[in-house]
Design brief:
about 325 residues; 6 helices; FAD/NAD(P)-binding domain; single chain; seven-stranded mixed sheet; elongated; 2 domains; alpha/beta; five-stranded parallel sheet; binds NADP nicotinamide-adenine-dinucleotide phosphate
């Protein structure tokens, strides 16, 4: 495993992959097998969001499920076996105005003939008073990371999608009770998760309700709630607030250079091409809809195959 070039120097590569989740590592595998010696910038966490997922039960090939970190490790090993190189660094600046494309990192600079953006997405925040101040003091966006701090305590989960229910179910391992607060009276999550959560003895639901404030002195002590139908306000005592209300794509770095929609998702065609020839995108940075390990991995493979054609035609 190499590092970024020394400060002030540039390193030329054929393919730079920005991000190391399922999309990035799958792109790396396919680009490596095409003999393109891809370099993957890991970003903050190798593997991205999936590395913090306790168990993945819907990635084919693992009938008993596999841990997120186990899957990432397998992806990494497989890509490295064919010559992909993972660099533990982050892209902090990108210039796609001409080829080779320039990507600055904390450690140096890369000049790349082609780029695959696989920067993923970040959990969305509620934006209510107390949330920022209480991060790490009872407010969390990752049950797998923080669940064990809440042994025997009462916690709340905000959201009604697959993430809220999956993480809520995971929290029942530790918490005395899990109260899921959802802004509507029906869940967005899939049928299997709904059934498991609705039948779980430790899980309660509060419907048609939003959290308007997170309260506590040094640590979370409660949440202020508002029923959106009746307008009634109340306070619920809790030690933890786990928030799963969707994601924001990590594409700020490319603003003004690549076409994106109003929410910041990169716009790609069916061949994973962005608005700049030679810059491709895969995974959640361009996908507000599917957001699965398998779909991100598929997009990564497709992007790398297109990069291969692009380089053949443009070298
Ligand atoms: P999501 O499906 O977008 O659900 C977000 C939930 O948060 C929705 O219930 C939404 O309410 C609620 N919400 C959004 N903004 C809110 C706000 N400001 N205040 C209160 N509630 C708010 O997000 P997700 O659960 O993270 O899932 C994202 C994608 O990943 C989905 O496609 C999902 O299927 C997939 N995923 C799959 C699995 C799995 O297959 N096991 C696991 C995790 C995620 P509304 O329902 O009213 O819009």
């Amino acid at each position: 495993m190499e590092t970024t070039p020394p400060e002030g120097e540039s390193r030329s590569v054929k393919v730079l992959i920005i991000g190391s989740g399922p999309a990035g590592l799958s792109a790396a595998l396919y680009a490596a097998r095409a003999d393109l010696a891809p370099v993957v910038l890991s970003g903050m966490d190798l593997g991205g969001q999936v590395s913090q997922t306790h168990i993945i039960e819907n990635y084919p090939g693992f009938p008993e499920g596999i841990s997120g970190s186990g899957l990432v490790e397998a992806f990494q090993k497989q890509a490295e076996r064919f010559g992909a190189e993972i660099v533990f660094d982050m892209a902090i600046e990108a210039d796609f105005s001409r080829r080779p494309f320039r990507v600055k990192t904390h450690g140096g600079e890369f000049l790349a003939e082609a780029v695959v953006i696989a920067t993923g997405a970040t959990p969305r925040k509620l934006g209510v008073p107390g949330e920022e101040e209480m991060i790490g003091r009872g407010v969390s966006y990752c049950a797998t990371c923080d669940g064990h701090f809440f042994k025997g305590m009462d916690v709340v989960v905000v959201g009604g999608g697959d993430s809220a229910l999956e993480e809520g179910l995971f929290l029942t391992r530790y918490a005395a009770s899990v109260t899921i607060i959802h802004r509507r009276d029906s869940l967005r999550a899939g049928a299997i998760l709904q059934k498991r959560a609705l039948e779980h003895p430790k899980i309660k639901f509060i419907w048609d309700t939003v959290v308007t404030e997170i309260r506590g002195k040094d640590v979370v002590e409660g949440v202020r709630l508002k029923n959106v139908r009746t307008g009634e306000e109340s306070t619920l005592k809790t030690s933890g607030v786990f928030i799963f209300i969707g994601h924001t794509p990590n594409t700020q770095l490319f603003e003004g250079q690549l076409e994106m929609d109003a929410r910041g998702y990169l716009i790609a065609d069916s061949k994973m091409r962005t608005s700049i020839p030679g810059v491709y995108v895969a995974g959640e940075a361009a996908d507000p809809v599917f957001r699965q390990v398998i779909t991100s991995a598929g997009m990564g493979a497709a992007a790398a195959m297109q990069v291969t054609h692009f380089l053949e035609e443009n070298e």
